[in-house]
Specification:
Elements (H helix, E strand, L loop, with lengths): L10 E3 L5 E3 L3 H25 L3 H7 L2 H11 L1 H22 L7 E6 L5 H14 L10 E7 L5 H10 L5 E5 H9 L12 H8 L3 E5 L19 E7 L4 H6 L7 E5 L6 H12 L2
Parallel strand pairs: 3-4, 3-5
Antiparallel strand pairs: 1-2, 5-8, 6-7, 7-8
């Protein structure tokens, strides 16, 4: 019939030449709105589950709070508490280091065996009324071997004022004395008693030549004036008790920068005691 307007869906051609219905703008908007509405409905439970557990706990009746806390929060709280305890422990350990020994004796090149060093540590600590340990007590270590890496370790500890006494055979002691590590005995021992009584056992060694030289390659080690840097302890009563089979001359030296002069003097008294 003429004039009758048939409502037909228009078609458009795509790139392949086929035809497909042309969607009206209002249909597209309706479809998009439906998709958004559907996705929002799906996300709603997830949003609720992500709510604050603390807020949920507060909203519950008092009788139900403990059960909810045990189920949802107790393990988390315990984990946080454990982590805090570890952090506090590490901070205390870092900020409050262990106390330094009151006396550190370095045994060089196996002047004593490990077991003999342990025995010297035990009985000397008892004589000085200190604990036989590194923490605020007496420490005797025989780990310094100059033929390996012992010299480097010894130098580092001496420069850090950690070592008070060095005991070595005559050859090794002469080498260390030449580096300027030891103080003259007369300046460290008690002048009126120890120096006078032990002067017969003093041993002179060359020290470090601290004078200035124009030659940059001049080796000052062992070029200093001979002074009584060493004490021959081979015949002292306690040393003979600990190392009865020693046939060499063992020398004791006092570190130049010792901070425990009183303990050093008491240790020498102990070695001399019957």
């Amino acid at each position: 019939m003429e004039g009758h307007n048939n409502h037909q869906t228009p078609y458009v051609s795509n790139e392949t030449g086929s035809e497909k219905p042309c969607t009206r703008p209002d249909e597209t908007a309706d479809t998009h709105a439906g998709a958004v509405s559907g996705s929002g409905a799906d996300l709603m439970p997830q949003a609720l589950t992500r709510g604050s557990r603390i807020g949920i706990l507060r909203s519950l009746p008092r009788a139900q709070r403990w059960e909810y806390f045990k189920d949802q929060l107790l393990k988390r709280c315990l984990a946080i508490l454990a982590a805090l305890c570890i952090v506090v422990f590490l901070l205390i350990h870092i900020l409050t280091p262990s106390p330094a020994p009151k006396l550190y004796v370095a045994i060089i090149d196996n002047a004593l065996s490990s077991s003999q060093s342990d025995e010297l540590q035990r009985i000397s600590a008892a004589a000085l009324h200190l604990s036989p340990s590194r923490k605020g007590g007496v420490m005797v270590s025989s780990r310094f071997d100059l033929r390996q890496d012992g010299l480097s370790a010894l130098q580092t500890m001496l420069s850090n004022h950690e070592i008070d006494i060095v005991i070595a055979d005559r050859s090794s002691f002469s080498q260390l004395s030449g580096y300027g590590y030891f103080a003259p005995l007369s300046s460290k021992l008690r002048t009126n008693s120890q120096s006078a009584d032990l002067s017969k056992d003093y041993v002179n060694f060359h020290g470090f030549d601290s004078s200035e030289h124009k030659d940059a390659f001049y080796d000052s080690s062992g070029k200093g004036v001979q002074r009584p840097y060493g004490l021959n302890i081979s015949n002292l009563a306690q040393w003979k008790e600990i190392a009865p089979q020693q046939h060499k001359q063992d020398i004791l030296g006092i570190a130049q920068n010792t901070r425990n002069s009183a303990s050093v003097q008491s240790f020498v008294d102990f070695l001399c005691s019957p």
